[in-house]
Amino acid sequence: MLNQHKILRVLQFISFLEQEPSKTVVQLASLLDTTDRTVYRYLDLVKECGFDLQRDKINRFFIVNDRSNGVRFTPEEADYLKQLVLTNGRKSKLKDAVLSKIYLSSDATIVAGHLINAKNGKVVEKLSTAIANKEQVILKKYQSINSETISDRVVEPFGFTDNYCTVMAFEPSSLKNKTYNIDRISSVEFNNQSCLFESDYEQQIPDAFGFAFSGVKHPVNLALPLKQFLLLKNDFPMTAPHFKFNAKKDVYELTIEVNDLGPLERFLRGMDS
Asked: Where are any strands of DSSP class E within 30-132?
């Protein structure tokens, strides 16, 4: 069964193969911090899953990246993929079909793009290990927008949200379930301490700005010109599906519910300054 750890490694592997230039087995092993033998296993897996894996004249590998074929997940496959990424995976006959399409879906490319960043890949990998082993970790130099501080956080991670953008964890010092943005974690260190608060874990699904639900939802209806729309979508990609273009007014209208108004207010203040 493919678990979270292996799914992450395969996604990283595919993203490296799709990036130019082509890569040797030794280069791929170095990028993934693994052995040549594991790389050869991954090459076989990628080929079996239907990717167009090629090798050039000097034994460098690459994947032909062609997303123009219009492949899309069925609702059943999309739901399964979400479960597979957010949990430890489940036995299903859909597994091979999903893996063969995982990098051809426009939604799934967010995952791979996120994992191309080597630092983020290491962070997610260590968090996945901690989740599997049910142990605490230290999030080193975590940059909190809410408190405007940079500090180390001792947490008990127990899951990821969509696209591995944030990790859900219980913070023993505050006795609260929180979400932590992967981009704002400098590194992860193991704490050599088993998890102590499993019975208190609660799923924390963040809004489009990365904030978890804290008891109140805030409706937002906002009209933005093209420049502000592009900047906001660039800073917060998860807002994109909630925009609609109003041709009559030549504005982009955002209709969404958020858990915290802070990020949007800071963005608008930055536009005024």
From this structure: 53-55, 61-63
